Amino acid sequence: MKSICVFAASRTGTSTIYIESAARLGRLMAEQELRLVYGGSKLGLMGETANAVLAHGGQVTGIMPTSLFLAEIVHPGLTEFIEVADMHERKAKMGRSADAFIALPGGLGTFEELFEVLCWAQIGIHRKPIGLLNMNGYYDPLLAMMRHSIEEGFTPSGSMDLILASDDPELLLQQLGQSVPVNGYPS
């Protein structure tokens, strides 16, 4: 594993634990020489993660559609910045550029990115590990909803195997590195 795509909010949330964990993840990625691939913003948890990677000598690739330049405020200090036409191209480029995915807390955009890579894994488009940095129990309701969907027969029972979750950035990186890819269409 050489690069990780991180999905995260362009806001910092209501607790300092979100900022601290995003920064810790960034520091650990830099120390482990893992390139950060992300949305390119200097704001929120996206910016906190990128700043920590850069501050500790790591490499960061930001990918952003032109239409978001003003709204997300492009990070000026990235190792590499890639301008794309739209969100579809952004997500495709981020997916191709990474060996694994991590979702930090975020809103609708983060959820959408996370579920897209989960769906891609489920149908066999990729076999890359997917992790949730579940700080402060942020993703507990989402994990419960996924289990509920399985119980109600709408999601294959093996779908929980597609996702790793931890509140500890170091443990999550370790889990991703040791992950055995799951073939699509879990039972």
TrEMBL record:
Residues forming coiled coils: none
SUPFAM superfamilies per record: MCP/YpsA-like
The enzyme's E.C. designation: 3.2.2.n1
InterPro entries (UniProt xref): LOG, LOG_fam
Main enzyme class: hydrolase
Superkingdom field: Bacteria
Keywords: Cytokinin biosynthesis, Hydrolase
A Pfam family the protein falls into: Lysine_decarbox
Family: Belongs to the LOG family.
PANTHER family per UniProt: LOG FAMILY PROTEIN YJL055W
Protein name, entry field: Cytokinin riboside 5'-monophosphate phosphoribohydrolase
Lineage of producing organism: Bacteria, Bacillati, Bacillota, Bacilli, Bacillales
